[in-house]
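User: Predict the structure for this protein chain, please.
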Amino acid sequence: MTTLRSRIIAWAGRLYLARTQKKGFDLSRMSFLPESVLMPLRREGLDPVDELAAVREREPISKLPVPIAANVWLVTGYDEVKAVLGKANSFSSDFTNLVGKAGAGAEQNPGGLGFADPPVHTRLRRLLTPEFTMRRLGRLTPRIHEIVEERLDAMEKAGKNGDPVDIVHSFALPIPSLVICELLGVPYEDRADFERLSAARFDLFSGANASFGAISESLSYFRDIVKKQRENPGDGLLGMIVKEHGDSVSDEELAGLADGVLTGGFETTASMLALGALVLLQDPKHFAALHDGDDVVDRYVEELLRYLTVVQVAFPRFAREDLEIGGVQIASGDVVLCSLSGADRDGKLGPEMEQFDPTRNVPSHLAFGYGIHRCVGAELARMELRAAYPALVRRFPNMRLAANPEDLEFRKLSIVYGIESLPVHLNG
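Assistant: Here is the predicted structure, written as structure tokens:
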């Protein structure tokens, strides 16, 4: 068991590092793009660059100077982002919009929910939704707490001689990776392949063609997993869907759903755990509040989700028709990019939205998206964060940063924002 878990944790670390500069389309190599296009992905430490707020204040919907035939719009206002993401009939997310562009062919469709429109999206989401209800997720609760405690034990052991411990690799990475393994119900005897192929998928991210090739390899692996689940369905997500829906869902669809759960549920939660820990470490008042009271945990988690909004930009939307959003005319065929990090700091929501304040009362944040494509695993992520943050500060009440804040290395030009390492001294 120990060896297996060590391999899973090692896989998580390789996956995380591989994703550092390889987010699907390798934006760092797209030097022909103007700075205004890359700007929504840039941050200074934990904060989006000042230019994003300036653009939102000036034009909540602005046209980007992209060298392609269609208009490309950047949406940064909270109300405007909700309007776009809430209009599934007016905007398409379907993969076919990318076919023939960015090196994508129809055979490279990754499946799953992110690049699907109704009625396909509706049917597939109905398959997944029951598995992400609080009743079904309740079966994971004891295991989540066990995983958190195991990681805290490992941290304590690693830092027993006063050596710095890296929260990213010792805590933030392994927790969601192990939880996702439990959720999918990947058999223990198959997890070595699961680790190898998942790591290979992300290691191949170096431009669009490599990205799609990696997705194909990952999907091929999940097809084998689905085949085994067909023969002997377990109690995990895949097995439950097979038991309850049988032949009404194809192997290809199941593989795509499993792949989406892995890619959507691992990296985002890992980034939230690491960056959230940094927020707490930088302010003793917040650290102490979370240490002392269970009643504040939910408010802290929700404000951290809003403040950090690690998924910076939503999947692109393609206008199906001419329409008006926020007083701006958008034409059929236009591409719309929604800045979730910009929207969640919109001053229209309240004062000082650029600051972290768990006492504030604001409308629901957009960290999990909005509309029909809102993250289906939002409650699972919340469960992990609610378990992990208080456990971390209570186990190590004297924890402090082991590096100068200005020396910390954050990701650059990434769809999912994160930090490379977060060294701490556990006992002050």
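The longest strand covers residues 61-64.
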